[in-house]
Amino acid sequence: MTSLAKGGIATAALGTAATGAYAGSIYLKESVSKRLSNEGYTLISSIKNPEHEALQWKEEFKSDKTAIKTLLKLTDDSDDLGGKSLKSWCSSKLSESYSEKLEHLESVKKYCTLKTIGDWLTRNNKKLLTNDDGDKNKWETTYSQRKTAKTSRALVGLADAWPEGSTPDKKEADLPIIRKWCESTSRTHFKAHEQTFTHVKEWCTEGGTA
Q1: Distance between CA atoms of 50 and 83, rounded to whole angstroms?
Q2: Residue 165 burial (CB < 10 Å; 0-12/13-18/19+)?
């Protein structure tokens, strides 16, 4: 075999290897969606029920409307349209190849994923009560409001009915159970089609306002 022929074969082999490596790099490049899922984020788009998903996008838009309108360059105030526009924007961003330098990456994390109920309360300017001594009286005030409103005790794992008349108060026994429920439930995802957020807001925030 001539030197020229050998050179041609070598060049062809290198070209094939380079093409394969390039194709492989494209194939292995993970999307923003996959990267965020691997990091523990739950995407709004993972909601299976179409109506529930649409409501989630709408509430996401409403929760930070001014900032999202600026991000998406929207002029219409419609919450329905805003939710649909946010869904479309997130879909586009999530399909892109992941990079730490990706434009609007933090906004994708902020607006395209499910938040915990605790995070959602913060976004709505509500503060979860804590086990700090400074919150002791606030827990009692919230408890009293739930008692006055006769809010369902079963919602937070309390047995029996509210005491009537001169029946001794169950506050000392109830509050540790309520605190535990608030702590665990506030870590679950906010889902717009469920009432859990409202229950947490009633039982676990200062004043227990609905």
Answers
A1: 13
A2: exposed
pLDDT digits (tens, 9 = 90+) for 33-76: 999 999 999 999 999 999 999 999 999 999 999 999 999 999 99
> DSSP secondary-structure letter at 167?
S
| 60 belongs to a structural domain | yes
Question: Two tokens at 154?
Answer: 């079963």
Alpha helices, H only, 125-208: 136-149, 171-185, 196-204
Q: Are 97 and 128 in the same domain?
A: no
Instruction: Give helix then strand counts, H and E, for the chain.
Output: 10, 0
Domain range for residue 178?
A: 121-208
pTM for this structure?
0.81
Cβ-in-10-Å burial (0-12, 13-18, 19+) of 101 comes to exposed
